[in-house]
Design goal:
The chain has 301 residues and is α+β, with helices and mostly antiparallel strands. It has twelve helices and nine strands. The chain folds into three domains: 172 residues, Jelly Rolls; 54 residues; 53 residues, Homeodomain-like (Arc Repressor Mutant, subunit A).
């Protein structure tokens, strides 16, 4: 396989700000590795002050010393791992980061390059629309073959006696990413038989909300979810309870209601703000959903 070298942005710089009081050791950050390593010692543990609703990097991490780390979200709430446990956490972009530790703990983290994920995914057939997605349900999971590769990657990254070259770590990162995708990519075939995963749903809904006034196509939403266009609408409806266009309509009308109630925008401006080119189309859609015209709704029915 041939993967071009591409320098990624800073890794974990923001973590130093969030994890104040932690002592960090980085490998590959200044050298612009695509999958740098960070080890952090948190003498007082950590809690909800560092929680993120949406992870901004793909990463895999684990505690290698210290107190228990607890998950505080979703169906994994209450689960924990302790130092020297061989279990890990895989966090793709967009996944919640709600963990805590009551006492001193040391963590090892490895960034998983998005561009490398997509490149390797294209080569091995796990990418859809140029995008390779990782599973979002792997919290405190075991994978001994993957862990062996990760441990050796970290060992080489932190070797001060015989420091690795960037070329070596780039090659090792490709091996890691390929193993990760082959074993833990978001299975398109399984996803297409059922609904969307929690993360796929979140990505699709976020894309709709971010482009509410725009004329958004199914292709863009399917790509956000990592599914083919053919299967996306069915999976979306199974998970959300409405087809994408129905969900978009309801969201636009809900936003219009809020604007009519809480602002002094003209009805024409409200229509434009929620994606309608003309007031007439907006009024017909609004009446169909609410039973009232926008003007009567504003007046309180």
């Amino acid at each position: 396989m041939n993967y071009p070298i591409r320098i990624e942005g800073d890794f974990m710089r923001h973590e130093q700000e969030r994890l104040k009081g932690g002592r960090f050791e980085f490998a590959g950050l200044d050298e612009n590795w695509r999958s740098p390593v960070a080890q952090v010692f948190l003498p007082g543990g950590f809690g909800d002050e560092i929680w993120l609703e949406n992870s901004i990097e793909n990463r895999i991490w684990w505690p290698h010393w210290g107190d228990h780390v607890y998950c505080e979200w979703g169906k994994y709430k209450g689960r924990s791992i302790a130092g020297r446990d061989k279990r890990m956490v895989l966090q793709p972009i967009g996944a919640p980061n709600h963990f805590r530790s009551p006492g001193a703990v040391k963590l090892t983290m490895i960034k998983i390059s998005t561009s490398m994920l997509n490149q390797v995914g294209e080569e091995i057939g796990t990418a859809v629309g140029g995008q390779a997605l990782l599973r979002d349900d792997l919290v405190f999971f075991e994978d001994h073959a993957l862990r062996r590769e990760l441990d050796y990657y970290v060992k080489r990254a932190l070797d001060r006696d015989a420091p690795p070259s960037r070329l070596e770590m780039e090659s090792r990162a490709i091996i890691l990413v390929e193993l990760l995708l082959r074993r833990h990519h978001l299975d398109k075939a399984k996803a297409e038989k059922g609904g969307l995963s929690a993360l796929q749903t979140k990505r699709a809904l976020s894309a709709i909300e971010a482009h509410l006034p725009a004329d958004l196509g199914v292709k863009a939403l399917a790509e956000a979810a990592g599914l083919s266009v053919f299967h996306f609408s069915r999976a979306f409806k199974k998970s959300v309870g409405a087809a994408p266009h129905q969900y978009l309509l309801r969201l636009r009308i809900d936003r219009a209601r809020s604007l009519l109630e809480n602002t002094h925008l003209s009805i024409l401006d409200v229509a434009a703000a929620v994606g309608y080119d003309d007031q007439g189309s907006f009024a017909r859609s609004f009446r169909k959903e609410t039973g009232l015209s926008p003007r009567r709704y504003r007046l309180g029915g």
